């Protein structure tokens, strides 16, 4: 049976709807207020004033937990075998279970297309260096391979690295190798 090509887009849209706009995480104890917007219960309680964080509509009181949203989040967190989930050897989003598309070298976190939006739209976060993920992930930790150990000649994620090791960013090592290769070509020609 062929898989529906629209399924990943549908999942991204669903994840977006199940994400709190205050903390940008999947809802925890989601509540829906009278204007129709939903937030994590603690995020809404932590907001100063009695207004909706999105539309500033008045909020009389913090409502009860939305059971339907809770069940949907439990299903999203508990589902397995999904083609858009991070498979073995692929980097998974640090916020949800979707496959990560980019990693932030400042936050040392990886994000799917839904959760990377905060980095793309927040002025402060736009200065962070983002790297596209191209199937390179640590088999042990599922994190992006961003370092190269020059002694062992292996690629490493942030969790593999120890302070005593002689490591460099992969891009630095690639530049060195390209320069060496160019010099060798000139010498041999």
UniProtKB/TrEMBL annotation:
Highest taxon in the source lineage: Eukaryota
Zinc-finger listed as a keyword: yes
Keywords: Metal-binding, Zinc, Zinc-finger
Database matches in InterPro entries: E3_ubiq-ligase_TRIM/RNF, Znf-RING_euk, Znf_RING, Znf_RING/FYVE/PHD, Znf_RING_CS
Matching SMART domains: RING
Pfam family of the protein (one): zf-RING_UBOX
Keyword Zinc-finger: yes
Gene3D superfamilies recorded: Classic Zinc Finger (3.30.160.60), Zinc/RING finger domain, C3HC4 (zinc finger) (3.30.40.10)
RING-type domain segment(s): 20-56
GO molecular function, one term: zinc ion binding
Protein name per UniProt: RING-type domain-containing protein
Originating species: Gouania willdenowi
